[in-house]
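Suppose you are handed a protein chain with no further information: no name, no annotation, nothing but its sequence. What can you learn? This example shows the usual starting point.
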Amino acid sequence: MTSQAAAAPAGLDAALARIRRWTQAAANVRPVYVLAPLVVVQWLAVLALAVTVQHNGWLYYAGGDQLWHYTGAYLLAHGHLPPSFVSFGWSVALIPVALVAGPNLVSALPAIVLVNTLVLLPVALLCVYGIGARIAGRLFGYWAAALWVALPYLGILFVQIGYHQKYTELTLPQLLGLTSVPDFPSYVALLVAAYLCLVALDAEGWWPALGSGLAAGASIAMKPSNSIFLAAPFLTLLILRRRSLLPFAAALLPSLLLLALWKYRGLGELAATPAEPVRVAGANDLLHRIHDTHDLNSWEHLHQVLLGLREHFWVARVIEWLPVAGIVALALRSSRGLLLIGTWFAVYLLLKGTYIPASVEDASFWRIMMPAYPAYVLLAAAVVLLTPGARARRSEAPWSLRGRVPLVATCAAVLLFVLTPLAVIAATKPLHDSGTAAVRQADSLVPVSRSLALQGSADAAGVHLSWRRKGSRSAAVFYRLLRSDARDGGTSCAQTPASAADDCRLYMGSEGTVRGTTFLDHPGQGRWTYRIGVSANWADDPNLGDVYVVSRPVTVVVR
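A reasonable first move is to predict its three-dimensional structure. Written in structure tokens, the prediction is:
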């Protein structure tokens, strides 16, 4: 054997020994010295994104049902229970904001965005670290937390030019909490539930399982579709810690009962929407829905999603491979990681990935799959566990709650997520206003505001309309003219049970938009009813955007 051949393995062994020493040194670093800088980096990255992507003040693109939830908060704050077509959790949480900001969601955006980015984003980061540490040790937790911060921005490098705007302007703001949609806080709640579920596997007390159930219930209270996440903690606890199932289910049950009460009081019946009875679907129902029906779910649509990834991302194969490799790694190294994280991602891919309205082309797929994003990141991080010789030596959390702290924290969570919503739902009366407090306009529930003070008069020149300026410092707004010649003034209230909230809808055409506070209309002879809608959008384009607030109607007779 030559001296060079003998030196090569010796040099390799020395390099490996140095790597092991560095790895051990990194694992011994206290979490605060790693996580605190990561939180700062995350804040700076979000700030850089916030100032560079297209936006209108504090208003970024949001493709969800944020108007429903905020209008619900505004009505609840004033003692009215709205028609409960969406859930109650986010509306109840926004009541303090709505009390101060008023009926216009645009005015409430700074408070919502700051809470999302300054509070909930760090909570999500700490949970990702905690989950990683509970699965494979402190160093793996650091790696998962770093990947959590970096991955959204790495996607900017991997996206094709033609899809860049949809990824950076339509997707990232929602993913990082720059909008008012409930999807973001709901998936942060899922992260808390997942972390506490892992803590429950090792803890002697009952509080981690109870906290996990409360967090999962809070997420479902904001987005009922997140109930499919429950398959992950139920399976994990059933196999690894069966005695924790009871406190988990006991903590989860109040949110489910509150959701049923909310639906019953707002709709007059226990239904997701009228004529859609609520029932719990089993596994056979789910597979039948995907395989045998093509109205909502289809295996073929999942294939179209994969084709969309390959068209718009030049690393599509890597995107597809990472969760598969991560599941294999967890299957080899960590049964708890496989049961919790693997199941979490699989159920969302199974139900949401096959959901036909979820399209990669219009970027709605990313928002609908957002609750599975933490699971995807953790699976991508787990790929390193495929390294030969890797071991998943889980570590305890760097912070341990002892004494009365768990009891106090649990009582606070019960007060916040159970007793407060119960008091709000029980104390408010279903809305009976015939459309004077809120109406449905273009599939959104919007408040009716007296403060716009719309006035109208007719003469030979046409119909003169004027109103008070109700802009917002948070974003630029414009005004949309709504007009109807119907006898009911373009407002029709559906026949609902007497115990249900009124469901009144606007059927008024849009006759144009203006930035000022006057408008001259030429409708022709007849009896015309007008309203003014305050509108805005992330691009500040008068041709786009939802109506955030509408005025009370004004009727003008043109002879």
